[in-house]
């Protein structure tokens, strides 16, 4: 019945590479172009591709709506939490220097945590909007 | 030289796509054309060495927003109705705005001129001190996440707010539809 077997096989092959590329963009952002926002939209695009090729139900099983809706505020909480943590450690809000022993390590740790917050929030929001739209036609 | 040539070809393609978008009445074709538009913009951004912005444009502009537009098309008709009013006034407004914008670009400094404020104040400081102060070689990342962490927190909050807004609007409708289904 389904004649789109080439598209399905190709997208199945592409998906792991898309997700690995998203992780690369995320964690290599200190050295190359990229960061949390870019990685977040790539993750969301990968899940949306999965939903288009294998049906919304398959995507909802892989990434449930509940998880997505928790991710939307969780990212902002992670980001602001880094700020609150630095406040509690006795520095200014979002001053990463107190997060580690070494100045450079502290900065890199802070940036990494903050970028993870951006990743979570952005991919969650993109997927939440997609699910909200895709679920309406039924 | 070759960069200018590439840019010219890409910008001509953009203009051609835009004319197609304006002239076509089939909304499916319009959505696909605007996806192509986003891909070409992403290519222009790569030529301008803004690879991270290009990645965002390719993923959001060409990918996700196209899918959202197609999802919307699924709910409505795919053929745009003929406009009831004459296009003279919108054409006039667009022409005047375009001329004003082109006039505005005449005062801009040339591309990449080094003695502009953007390159001499904090920009130069970031470029010199980023590695020393943060240990992060990619200055874009260190500016976004460290020097201007407050800004990025605000941006993340904007994304969060947009997501919450869309969810509130669309989910309330879904629940109301469910209720109607039960009572009727």
Automatic annotation (TrEMBL), chain A:
Residue span, Na+/H+ antiporter MnhB subunit-related protein domain: 6-127
Gene Ontology CC terms, in alphabetical order: plasma membrane
Membrane topology classification: Multi-pass membrane protein
Transmembrane stretches, start-end: 5-25, 37-56, 68-89, 109-134
Compartments where located: Cell membrane
Pfam families in the cross-refs: MnhB
Major localization class: membrane
Highest taxon in the source lineage: Bacteria
Keywords (A to Z) from UniProt: Cell membrane, Membrane, Transmembrane, Transmembrane helix
Family: Belongs to the CPA3 antiporters (TC 2.A.63) subunit B family.
Name of the protein in its database record: Putative Na(+) H(+) antiporter subunit B
Organism: Lutibaculum baratangense AMV1
TrEMBL record, chain B:
Membrane topology: Multi-pass membrane protein
Transport found in the keyword field: yes
Domain of life according to the entry: Bacteria
CC terms in the record's Gene Ontology section: plasma membrane
Subcellular localization: Cell membrane
Start and end residues of each MrpA C-terminal/MbhE domain: 106-175
Alphabetical list of Pfam families matching this protein: MbhD (PF13244), MbhE (PF20501)
InterPro entries: CPA3_Na-H_Antiporter_A, MrpA_C/MbhD, MrpA_C/MbhE, Nuo/plastoQ_OxRdtase_6_NuoJ
Start and end residues of each MrpA C-terminal/MbhD domain: 13-76
Organism: Lutibaculum baratangense AMV1
Keyword vocabulary terms for this entry: Cell membrane, Membrane, Transmembrane, Transmembrane helix, Transport
Residues annotated as transmembrane: 6-22, 27-48, 54-76, 88-106, 152-170
The protein's name: PH adaptation potassium efflux system protein B1
Organism classification: Bacteria, Pseudomonadati, Pseudomonadota, Alphaproteobacteria, Hyphomicrobiales
């Amino acid at each position: 019945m389904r004649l789109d077997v080439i598209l399905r096989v190709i997208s199945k092959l592409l998906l792991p590479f898309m997700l690995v590329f998203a992780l690369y963009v995320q964690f290599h952002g200190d050295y190359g172009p990229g960061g949390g926002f870019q990685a977040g939209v790539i993750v969301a695009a990968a899940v949306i591709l999965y939903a288009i090729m294998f049906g919304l139900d398959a995507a909802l099983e892989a990434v449930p709506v509940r998880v997505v809706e928790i991710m939307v505020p969780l990212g902002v909480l992670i980001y602001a939490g880094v700020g609150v943590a630095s406040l509690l450690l006795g520095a200014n809000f979002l001053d990463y220097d107190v997060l580690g022993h070494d100045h450079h390590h502290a900065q890199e740790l802070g940036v990494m945590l903050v970028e993870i917050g951006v990743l979570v929030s952005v991919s969650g929001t993109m997927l939440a909007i997609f699910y909200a739209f895709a679920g309406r036609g039924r | 030289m070759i960069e200018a040539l590439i840019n010219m070809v890409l910008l001509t393609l953009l203009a051609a796509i835009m004319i197609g978008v304006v002239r076509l009445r089939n909304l499916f074709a319009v959505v696909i054309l605007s996806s192509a538009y986003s891909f070409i913009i992403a290519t222009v951004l790569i030529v301008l060495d803004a690879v991270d912005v290009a990645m965002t444009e390719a993923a959001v502009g060409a990918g996700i927003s196209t899918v959202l537009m197609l999802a919307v098309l699924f709910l409505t008709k795919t053929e745009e109705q003929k406009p009831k009013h004459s296009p003279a006034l919108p054409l006039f407004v667009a022409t005047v705005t375009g001329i004003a914008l082109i006039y505005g670009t005449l005062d801009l400094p040339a591309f990449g001129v080094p003695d502009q404020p953007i390159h001499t104040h904090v920009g130069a400081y970031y470029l010199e001190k980023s590695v020393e102060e943060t240990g992060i070689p990619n200055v874009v990342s260190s500016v976004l996440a460290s020097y201007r962490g407050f800004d990025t927190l605000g941006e993340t909050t904007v994304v969060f707010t947009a997501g919450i807004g869309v969810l509130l609007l669309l989910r309330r409708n879904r629940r109301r539809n469910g209720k109607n289904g039960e009572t009727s």
